[in-house]
Every structure is written in C-alpha cells, then in structure tokens.
Amino acid sequence: MKILSEDRTRILFEKLTKYIGVNVKLLIDRPDGTYCFREKKDRVYYISERLLQLAQTVKPDHLVSAGTCFGKFTKTNKFRLHITALTYIAPYAPFKLWVKPSAEQQFLYGHHVIKSGLGRITENTPKNQGVVIFTMSDIPIGFGVTARSTTDCRHADPLATIAFHQADIGEYIRSEDTLV
Amino acid sequence: MGRKAKFDETKKVKKGPGRKAKKQQDPVFKKGLLDDDKEEKKLSHRQKQRAARRLKKKKEIQEKRKALKEAKKNPTQETEQTEEATSCSEDETPKGFTDDNKEWLKPKKATNKAKDPESDSNESDDEGLGEDENDASSDNDESENEEKEVSKKSKKENYKVGTLDDLFHDTDEEQDETLNDVEDDDTKKPYNSDSSAESDESEKDDDDDDDMLPIEKANIKLKKKQRLEKKLADEEMQLNIAKQDVFAFPSEEELQNPTSLQDVLQRIKDIVAVLGDFNRLKEESRSRCEYTDLLLKDLCLYYSYNEFLMEVLMQIFPVQELVEFLEASEVSRPITLRTNSLKTRRRDLAQALINRGVNLDPVGKWSKVGLVVYSSTVPIGATPEYLAGHYILQGASSFLPVMALAPQENERILDMCAAPGGKASHIAAIMKNTGSLFANDANKERTKAIVGNFHRLGVVNAIICNYDGRQFPEVIKGFDRVLLDAPCTGTGVIAKDPSVKTTKDQKDIQRCFNLQRQLLLAAIDCCNAKSSSGGYIVYSTCSILPEENEWVVNYVLKRRNVKLVPTGLDFGTEGFQKYRHHRFHPSLKLTRRFYPHTHNMDGFFVAKLKKFSNVIPEPVKDEDDEEAEQENENGDGENEVNKQNGDVSPETKNKLKAGAKRPAKADSSQPQQKKQKPNGASPQTPSAASSLTANQNKKNQKKKKNKTGQKSEVVDKQDHTSANSTEQEKTNGDKKQNELDTTEIQGDVSTPNNKVTLSASQKRRNRKKNKQGQKGENKVNKNENDSATIIKPVTSKEVPNESTLDREKNKGNTNASILNSTDSVAGKKRKNKKKNKESLIITKESTSVSAEPQTVQEGDKNQVTQTTTEVNLNEFNKNIQINTSGKGSPSKKKNKQSQVQENTNKIEQSNKDVLNKESPQTKDTNKINGSDQQTSNESSSKKKKNRKKNKNKQAGALSQINKNENKVTETVEIAAAKKLKNKKNKQKQIGKLDSNKGMKKGVDKKNFKRNKPKGK
Amino acid sequence: MDIVNDILEREQKKAEKYKPIVVEKHLELEFDVGTLLTSDTNDLDSKLIKSDQERDIYLQSLARDNTQLLLNKIWELPTERIDEAIVVRLPQPTTVLPRAKPVPKPKPLTKWQEFAKAKGITKTKKSKLEWDEQLQKWVPLYGFRKAAAEKEKNWLIPVPQNLDPMTDMYEKKATEKSEKVAKNELQRLKNIARARKVKIPRVGLPITSDKASSTQLATATSVAKASTASLGKFQDKLPKEKEARGKGVHELIPGKERKRKLPVPTPAAEKEQNLSMIDRILRKRPKIDMEKAVSKHINEEQLQRSEEKKSMKPMKGRGKPKGKGNATNFSAKKPKGGKGQRNPSKKNPGRKRR
C-alpha cells in the first residue's frame, strides 16, 4: 500500500472526471472520515484512512485487497477503470444510459450498446463521454463511452453503436481471477 | 459454507456462482447388483425360510380356527378342506404360482408397513425423495386398512363359503394364478400394494362379467368369495408375522452374493425394525452386534460409504435416525440465497426475482435475509441482480454462525477462514459497512473469490489478507469478535460433495481436528477480552463429527480463558456432552448442532465462546493431546478407554473457568511421583499397611465379611484403612499417601466404567489427607521404637503367605502383565484372609490392568519395562543389604532411581518423536508405574524373605536388622513429616488433589535430601 | 634481647607497610592463570559503591586483593630460574578469547570445480613420471626435462595427407600449445571475475554505441540530460519522453534522490493536495468543444421548433389541412392509439378501430 505519485494521481483523477465529472471532489472530501487512494502492485484502492491504518499492519505480500479497488495502471502508465469501481461511480455519474431488458444480457456478455438496445439516455450527452449504464430498473450494470452524442442518437440507425463497452458486472463471473 | 480442508492441492476448488448449488447424482453400483432384479428371481434362501415359517404359522392358525369351531359345536367339512389345502400346499414343491409362494410374495407389504413411520418422518424434511416414497407408503396403508375392514366384516360368511368350495377346489387353482401373477409383478416394483392388484382383479372380473351364464356368474361370485377368504387368511397371518417376527438373519452365502439393491434396502429396514425393539424381535443366538455389523455392511453397500465413516456415523446416531440422516444426505438441500442488505431489501429482491420467473419463499422465521429457491427458469447464479450484488447464494446453515456472532456496528471483526466470503460479507452487511472486517484465508486462490464477492456485494470496509490462520495472532490482535468457520471433513455436506463418503478416514479426521484446535486457539488469541461490546468467538464447522466439534471446543476450554455462552440460535439440537469414551465439559450443551434430516439444512455445528481474560494459561499436556497421539498410532479405542475415562473424569470435574492450570499440575506431578515409588517409601509400605491392619483388624472385621469383589469398593475400603492408619501412626503417613496415590492413579487407569466411585474416593482421600496433615504436625516427633515394635510382630506374622506370594513373583518375573494377573488372582483368593494384604492386592490388580498395554506394545517396550523392573529389583536388594549393614546409603538408591527415570524419559522422548508408531506416554508412565508397583511388592516380599532366612538362622540378627531398617526409615519419616507440616498450610486454603500431589513430590524429594547426609 | 626485639619491631613495621598476602573472599574467585585472568563473582558492597568518596578506595582495594590472589596462584606454579630471573611457565589458557577478525569465507569454487562437484567427479592423482615406450625411459608429466623429452621424442613430425605438405608442424604444435595456455589463462581470469562478482561480457568485447540496446540508449540519454550543472532541471522534454526505468538506472542518473518511497503526507495534507489537483484538472476542462457546441445548437433548434408547434396548434383552428402538420412538425412521438384525451369538438374522434 503506497501512496500514488504525482502524475499517477493526475492520471487517475483525469480518468475519474471522465465518468463522474466534478463529483470526484465528493470522493475526496467526505463527511464520514477521510478517504484516500493507495496503490499496490499497480492496482489503485480507495480506502478510508482508518481502515488504511489497520491494513498497514498486514505484510504487503500477504495483503490481497483493502477497501475498494478502482482500477489499475497499465504498463504504458495509463489508468484502466475496473468494474469494481462501479459502486462509487454509479451514484455520482452525471451522464447515464439505460438499456432495454432485451439488451441487458448482450451488454453483460461484453458487447457494445447499440441503438436498438438503448432505452434512455441523459439529455445532451456529448460524444466520447464516459457514461454509466443502467438497466431499466435502475440497476447499474457497467460503464462505457458514448460513441455519439444524444442528438446523433436520435437519427442513428438501429444497429449503430451508441456506447462502447468498457466494463460490466458480468466480469464478476467471466473473469473473477483477473478481476483485481 | 465451511469449505472442506484441502490437503492435496491437486484437485481445484470449484469457484464462482453455482458451486454451492450442486446436484447430487445417484449412487453408482456394480452391474451385478443392478441387472438381476429385472428378471424374475427364484426363492432366495431367506425367502424359503420365511415361507417355511409361514406355513407353520398357517397351520397353527387353522388349528385355532378348528378349536374355535369345536367351541361353536358345528363341525364342518371346511376344516378338513383347509387341512387338505395345507397338505397339498405342503407336498407340492414351491415352483410356479402356488399357495405358499403366493404367501412369500406377500411380505413386501408387511415390511412396507414396517417402513411407513420412517418414510413419514422423512416427508417432513426432504422434498425430493420424501414425496414419492410417501404416497407409495400412504396408499400402502390405505390399501391395507381397507383390506382389514373387509376382513372384519366378512368374518362370518367364511363358514358358508367353506361348505361349497370342495367342489370348486380345482378351479381355485387357476383363479389363484390370475391373482398370483398380478401379485408377483407387484413384488417387482419397489413400493407397491395390493390396492392396484385389487383394482385390476375387479376390472378383470367386470370385463368377463358380460356374456356369461348365470351359473358361471354364480361360480365367479363364489370364487371371488373364495379368494377373499384366502386373502383374509393371508391377512391374518401377515398380522401375526408382523407381530411375531420381521426379519430372519441371512446366512453367509447370501451375504457373499447380495441379490439386489432392493433386498439390501429391505434388509436394512428389517434390521432397523429389529433393533427398534430388540429383545422382542431378535432371533435367539444372535447378538445385537451381529445385527449392527450386518446393518453396517448393508448401509455401506447401499449408500456407498466406506466402512470407517459409517462406523463413526453409527456411533453418532441411533440406527433409526442414522438411516434418516443417510437418506437426507443423498438429496441436496434446496438452494438458498441471502439478500445483500447493503444494496436492497428482501421484499424488493423477491419481487425482482419473481419477475424473472424464480419461484422462492422466505427461508424461515429465524432469518430476515434468507430466501429459499424452489425452482427457477433462469440461472439463479447469473441474473443481473446477482451480478449487481443484490444477493449471494449461500447455504441456510451458513447464516447461523454469523447470527451467532451477532456483529455490532463499528466493531473490528475477523473472519479467519473467509473464502469464498459468504459469511464475511454477511457480517459486513450486518455492520452496514462500518467498523472494519478482516477476511483471511490460507488459500491464495480462494482469496480471489473473496475479493470478487466483496466488490460485487459492495463491501468496502474489508481488508482481505492471506495468512495461515495459525500465524494470525502475530499479525494483529484485539478483535472484538472472531468468526472461525474451520476447514473440516465436510461430513455435514455429503449431499454437496459425495466424495466425502469414500475418501475420509481416520487420518483425515486426525489432521482436521488438530488443525482446527490450533486455529481455534489462534482465533481466541486474536480476540480481545477487554473490548466493551465483544470478546466473542464463534466456532463452526460443516461437519457433524464430535471429534471436530465438541472435542475441539472442550480442548480450548482447558487451554484458554474462555467460556461457552448461548449461541442465540433458538433451534438446533444441543451439542454432545459425552461421546463414546469422551466426557466433555457440561457447558457444551450450549453449543448447537444442525442435521440435514431434522432441520433441512446442511449438517452444521456452531459454538459461541466468550473470552474473559487475555492472559494465556501455561500450556497443559493432558489426555487430549495424548489421545490425539494415540489416535495417530492406532484408531481402536479399547485401551484408550482404559486410560481416558480415568483421566478425563477428575479434570472435567475440577476444570471450570480458570481450571486450565490444575490438570497441568496434576499431570506434571504424576510421573515423577510415580518414579519416586521405588525409593524409601514403597519398600516400607507393606509393613506400614500391615502394621495398621494389625490394629485395624478388629474394627474392620464386619466390613471384610460383607465385602464384594468389585474394585471401587476395595479402593474405598483401602482408603478408610489407610486413613485410620495415618491417624494411628503419623510417622509414616506420607508413605501411605504415596501408596494411596499409586493405587488411586492406577485405579483411574484400571476402572474405566466406575469412575464416579473413583472420583468420590479421591475426594474422600483429600479430606483424609488434610486430616493426616493436621494430626501429622503435632505428632511428628513420636519415638521410633514403637513403630519398630509394631512392625516386628506383623512381619513375623506375614511371613508364610508373603513367601507364597514371592514364589509367584519369581515365577512370572519375565513378563509383568502375566505376573500381575496371576498376582491379582492370588490376591483375590487371599483377600478374605487379612486386611493388610488388601493394599497389595489392589495395587496388584491395578497394575495388572495398567500392564495390559505393555502386552499390546512391541517387543522393545516390553524389554524397557523389564529392564526397569530389574533395575528396581536389584535396587531393592541393595536397599536391604544396606539396611542390614546398618548404613542406609541412599546415594546408591539415587543412582538407581536416576536410571529408572532415564528409562522413563527415554520412552517419553521416543513417544514425542515418533507419533504414529510409538505409544503415547500415558501408557509408558502406566507401564513404569506398574512395574514399580510390582517391584515394590516384590521388594517388600524379598525383604520379608531375607528376614525369614535370618530368623531361622539367628533371632538376634533379625531384631538387629529390623532396628537398622527402622532407624533409616524413621529419620526419613520425620523429615517427610516436617516437610508435610509447612506444606499443609498451603494445602488448607487450596484443598486440591494436585496440590497434595505436588506436596508429596516435595516430600519424596526431601527424603532424598535427608537420606544423603546419612549416607555419607 | 633488645636486639631481638628491635629486629622483631622492624619486621613489624615492614609488615605494617605491606598488606597481608592472604585475602579471604566469601566466594572463591575463578582463575585462568594461562591468560592471567581472574574474575570475582562476589557482589560489590552497594553502599560503598554509592558513596562518592569511598568508591575509589573500595575499588582499588578490591583490585589489589584480587591481584594478590592471582599472584598467589601464579606463585603456586612451579618456578624455575633462568639467568637470575625467576620464571613461571603458565598453563594453557582455559578461557576462549574472541576472534578479532571474522572467520574467512571459503574460497568460491571455479567453474570446473562446480561442474566436478555436480557430476561427482573426483580428481585422480596422476603419477609425476610416466614410462615412455618410444624413449624407453621415465618421462615427467610436466616441467623439468619434459620439454627436452618432447624434443627428443618428436625429432620429426610427419605431415598428414590432408594437409598441404608445406605446413610447418612444429609451428602448428607451438601455436596449439600457446592457445591452450591462453584459454586456460582466460578461464582463470573468468573464475576470478566470477568470484569477485565483476561484470564481464559473456562473449567478445564490451558493447559500443552502434550495438547498444534501446534500454541502454534510453538510460544513456536520461543520464546525459541529467548531467548538467542544474541536474537537467531546465532541459526541455520531448512530448512523449519517458524516464529510463529499470534496475540500476536510477543510481546512474545524477541528482536523483535516493530514497525509494515518497513520504506519506498526513491525511489532511493529502486531501488538500488531491483537491487542488482536481481543481486544476477541472479548470483545464472548459475549452470550446466544436462537436458539443454544434450538437447543443441543433438540440436547441429542435426544442424551440417543437415549442412553437405546440403554441401554434390551438390558434390554428379547423382550417388546418390534415397531415400537413405531420409533414411539417417532425416529432419522434408515436400516434397515441386512442389513448390520448379526445375532445368531441375535433372532427376526427380518435383513431378508427378496426
């Protein structure tokens, strides 16, 4: 559990702002205790200060995980958001996207969201904006990046991709071992 | 769910959803078993037997009838008809379909009847197999009922029918055939009844009713009646059979080649019925164990268990319940799932799942979050709700430990064996993501599952780490609550993993409970007793074996400052307080057991401990470890029984909350004190005992008269005598105490069954000792010569019978056990002669028992013991010489003594090193002890012998000798008494047996100290 | 008489001047005369030790007594006189003195020794002399007289068929020999290098710039950049330039702080840092996004158009031709299947149901 370096922190926050915009601040200054980001083996964990103290008693090579894993830094020093971060991203996301029940399974198996599967989408979502994807019963099932803005969606043909799949809760089953 | 201990890393644990909901496929059998129940089988030996017996019965019945009719005074032809019917049935061989194999085709019904109650009870707990069996059985009953009533109302018309049926006798036969083949294809089907037979008979009649002449109709009617009557006869007979005898014990060749599974099942049920009320239904010349052995074999065959596990199960359950358990563990439990209260509420989840076409219900009153799934159109482990972490698949039994743990918010909680994180996430959910949760698991692979589940369920207050639980106290301590769901053999979850049936053996269980003990100790160390809200430890396994449950808890109760508290689960059966030869702490009834057949959840065990102090009492080495070692080297409990019963009883008695130390002291004290036997004290004891009895004889005459042979009695008496004796001469009080304790210790060893009396006697002994002590103080400085005078005449008196005793000794000197047994016999004979030999006798008896393990042991041990005995022998010769020479030089004694100790130590060492093939040291201590005892007797007798020689040489020398001896001994005694005095004060405020022992040890040590200067 | 007395008195005085040589101790001292060592296990007089003025006297006396005892012990030993000096031969010292230097490490094995060890090859002693059939005499295996023997032995070397007849076999032999020696020398050096853990190229020469690996080059560049007066502070970076990473690189680069981890700030401080950083990031956001602007514009147009549609509808009464509205006002709304509220004033009362 070591503290993130300057640039890594920047990369992380840039990525987060893609998805939850200004709400990143809410992650940092919370009413309940102070929370912070720590990295371990390139994985970034979001953990409360109090829990962190306890976690530091555990030897690094015996510590598997602590708090919530947000994602990992790739070899090329980019940050990739994991599905495990959904717990924190979903409630803060300004831009949402709802998929029809028919398209749920499709998305959960890692496909993109296509127009035909699109249930609702937040007004004037720009292009290439990180969005959290919900079922019609408001269960967050993953997140992705919009392929086209809301206005374009209107005119798009039913097979056009609306949002690129990035992570979905199906990964909990599909790739449990590589999850964290 | 408690995972099973994975000793070989080769087989991977199935991960991800659905690994809990695994369907149990049917048991596989050899072809030989399966095919031959299809083609119709000829009479097996047993069936023939039954047929023969039934014939006899039938005859009797008809005699009865006849008698009845004579009473009615209307002699009819019907009687002789029945007679000739019986005659024909006798003379014709039972092939094809005839009366008597019609009869032997029946008894399925009878046995069905026998089976009904249990199948009903099954219905209560398991769906899958329960129902079909039940409706089968139920329609059985109703069919039989209506048959009965038929029989009742048509009792009287028998007689009129009887008049006619000699005319239709021949036609009867082929009618019977129709009936019979109906019936015998009934017998093909497992659960069947005559109701079907009845129905298709009737319809048969109906279809041939039309286009018939009236006479034929009449004929048919008559035949129907005829058949009815026959049925009645059979019915009646069935009833009788059901009353008299259900089951004939099969012969060997049948056991060699089992006919079919159905038969095996049948046999099982019969035996269960027989064992139900044994003394009425048993065959003569068949012992209960024969039945149980047969049952064991059959169960192993039918449910495909290995013998060992089945034996263990039979020890846990009564047979009736055992069968239920086995049945229940064939079918898998219904899938249950736990609502993740962090993300949703149960109602909402249920609604969502029902919309997805899942058929579910709340699991029960006892859980707010449990849902049980009956059927589902979608894979229950892959719905979006599941993936979104609204619920987790978890066995109903897995809720229990967490409910028992009752975590509070803002606590620090540890789950020691957390994978795959079901229980841990439950804890987090109850804590509402506050506080902090450590989820540990030894297996790195499986921690991944924890990570996955936690993130899915939105548990954010958890630290997941990968330690061996035993090391965890080094990492971090001071938890408010600790949950230990220990790895186990998984005998509770056979439904999930049938491999348990065959793979588990003594070794695995051994490994398991050793690991579990260490884990539980570690868990307790992790817990913080001072925490305001907590200080609780919950121990749970998915096994039902007491070795892994009660015994483990009992073990830690001795070693840590913990106490059992109620689990807060209002259902479940209480934990065992005694199992086989174990006697557990009475508070173990606070633990809870759950069985598949009674609670319809996996077999499970939950114990809740409260830690009341953080100090760790110093480690004790007591019967548990030894037992563990023993179980290592031999699984059979026989010679264990001899020891443990004795050992457990006193400790579990005086071990309560802080009782951890006491057994320690006791055990530590025993060996030395045993080793001390040979020196100064023991050679004196016979004389002491004799001297006391010289005065005691008058008092105890009556007692001796009505004395019974049983040992406990003897021991008690012996206490009395010794006690009185101590009041008489305080000077050698300490020796008698030694004497006493040896008898007492070996009394424990020797008498497995009447330990109650023993412990009682121990208490008495305590009292007596205190008294001795108090008296001992003021009368220590009593002058020597009176004891000398006392001793002299007695010894002279004893000479003859002692010498006889001697002969026996020298004869059997090579093998201790033989010798002792002979002695004991001789001793019993001699018991009624003199009181003073009782002490000897008792010691001998005890030694004989304690010496039995030696004979069991390998040769080398025997040698060791022999060497020790020899050492003692020539040691005592030395002593005597020394005494005669007038200069008691116990320095030599001491050397010998040290030798003895060395031997014993060696033995103990070897035991420590090689667990599985060496014998645990209890045996050896006993061994040594036994040998010492015996040698003490021998030595005493030897001494006497010398005396005798001297006497018939010259009397003056004799007196001289005695004087010298007494001088030596007296000084010793004085010293000892002095020692006694200052020990007494301690002993008064803590009236413990062990403190006494410690004292005695001290005394003997003192003896050495005092002897040494004299020697120089 | 008086003579005797004053002699005695003189003796007395002498005696007073000296302390007595017998010292009685509560416990026996432990002597090791071999090392002239004695250790006093008696416990010190605590109050003398406490008091400042007596301490020194006490200690001195203690030292003196113990020395006296040691000397007594020495005097007990057998003495002899060597040229006017009384000499004592001290016994073997019993106390083990600690070693000044650490125990030398065992020599690291050479490559061959390792190999032999692994293979279990044990060297067999060769006899120094061996019988030469040709010369009919004992020839040493090496060294003195070997060369002479060789020369004598092959006074003539036949040139094999496959070689050209002009080859000088003597020279060939010499070169082979020299190569062998060179190789052996190389092995020796290599062994030494391995023992000292000196890095040497496996084969050939050390790398040069033309055959350097990319990592080496990256390292070289980053080192070069950093080796300025200001430790490369003012060197401008390429857009996608990476710091050379890897084992040992960090040490090469001058002016790099040596500590591994960043210092962990206090929670509050960290929080502040993070917040400020987020602010920076967010401030960087608002750059005009053509795409977004256009889409926004289109969106607004559509909105207000639909607005005016709604406003116009009621004032346009009956005269509005049917279907025209549909043609003009584009809306993604589906026709309400008779479910919308219907007003009887309208001509068409809802949809026709078939």
Automatic annotation (TrEMBL), chain A:
GO terms for molecular function: RNA binding. Keywords: Nucleus, Ribosome biogenesis, RNA-binding. Belongs to the NIP7 family. Gene3D superfamilies: 3.10.450.220, PUA domain. It is found in: Nucleus, Nucleolus. GO terms for cellular component: nucleolus. One of its GO terms (biological process) is ribosome assembly. It comes from the Eukaryota. Interacts with pre-ribosome complex. The keyword RNA-binding applies. Required for proper 34S pre-rRNA processing and 60S ribosome subunit assembly. Residues 95-174 form the PUA domain. This is 60S ribosome subunit biogenesis protein NIP7 homolog. CDD domains: Nip7_N_euk, PUA_Nip7-like.
TrEMBL record, chain B:
It is found in: Nucleus, Nucleolus. S-adenosyl-L-methionine binds at C417, A418, A419, P420, G421, G422, K423, D441, D468, D485. The active site is at C542. Keywords: Coiled coil, Methyltransferase, Nucleus, Ribosome biogenesis, RNA-binding, S-adenosyl-L-methionine, Transferase. Residues 1-213, 618-1016 are annotated as: Disordered. GO terms for molecular function: RNA binding; rRNA (cytosine-C5-)-methyltransferase activity. Residues 119-147, 171-185, 197-213, 621-639 have a biased composition (Acidic residues). Residues 679-694, 743-761, 812-824, 844-884 have a biased composition (Polar residues). Belongs to the class I-like SAM-binding methyltransferase superfamily. RsmB/NOP family. This is SAM-dependent MTase RsmB/NOP-type domain-containing protein.
TrEMBL record, chain C:
The keyword Magnesium does not apply. GO terms for cellular component: nucleolus; preribosome, large subunit precursor. It is found in: Nucleus. Belongs to the RRS1 family. The keyword Nucleus applies. Residues 237-256, 287-311 have a biased composition (Basic and acidic residues). It comes from the Eukaryota. Keywords: Nucleus, Ribosome biogenesis. Involved in ribosomal large subunit assembly. It comes from Leptosia nina. Residues 312-323, 333-354 have a biased composition (Basic residues). Residues 237-354 are annotated as: Disordered. This is Ribosome biogenesis regulatory protein. GO terms for biological process: endonucleolytic cleavage in ITS1 to separate SSU-rRNA from 5.8S rRNA and LSU-rRNA from tricistronic rRNA transcript (SSU-rRNA, 5.8S rRNA, LSU-rRNA); ribosomal large subunit biogenesis.
